[in-house]
Amino acid sequence: MSDLRELYQTTILDHNKKPRNFRVPDEANRSAEGHNPLCGDQISLHLAVDEDGVIQDLGFQGSGCAISTASASMMTQALKGKKVDEAMGLFDSFTELVTGDPLEEPETDGVGKLAVFAGVREYPMRVKCATLAWHTLKSAVLESGETAKTE
Ligand code: ZN
């Protein structure tokens, strides 16, 4: 797990410093706000979904701690070109990854680069930071129009 921990540190720092897709796509047709009051993280997420349910483009804006920013940044990279239902599948895998038993080996099949977030399971306080972007994704996809809250 120590290699993953090192990768976690460097990846989070990198994405926090240079968030990817930190913008509103021109073609955006779905969006949602997310708020994690526990830490003060705030994001808005914008998706351009075509009629086949494929996420053609997505981006986010907002401000928050390093983990919430890095998580949103990496999520946008992971979801570009994916179908909405694949994205929801990844939501479940990611949630499992960061909330699993810290004493057990994390299940990282199918999550790709997001595997670095397995380190978060050792810091329960940070789970909400890591999952904020994903909860916001869910409300954008469901078009609930509600602010996603981690509480
Ligand atoms: Zn946070």
Describe the structure.
With 151 residues, this protein is α+β, with helices and mostly antiparallel strands. Helices cover 41% and strands 18% of the residues. It contains four helices and four strands. Strand 1 and strand 2 form a beta hairpin. Helix 1 crosses helix 2, helix 2 packs across helix 4 and helix 3 packs antiparallel against helix 4. The radius of gyration is 14 Å and the shape is globular. The model has no long low-confidence stretch (mean pLDDT 92). Zinc ion binds next to helix 2.
List keywords for this structure.
151 residues; alpha+beta; globular
Please outline the major beta sheet.
4 strands, mixed
How much of the polypeptide forms β-strand, as a percent range? Answer: 15-25%
Bound small molecules, deduplicated: zinc ion
Helix count, DSSP H or I runs of 4 or more residues: 4
Q: Give the low-confidence spans.
A: none
Task: Give the SSE string.
Answer: HEEEHHHE
Mean pLDDT: 92
Strand line-up across the major sheet: 3-2-1-4
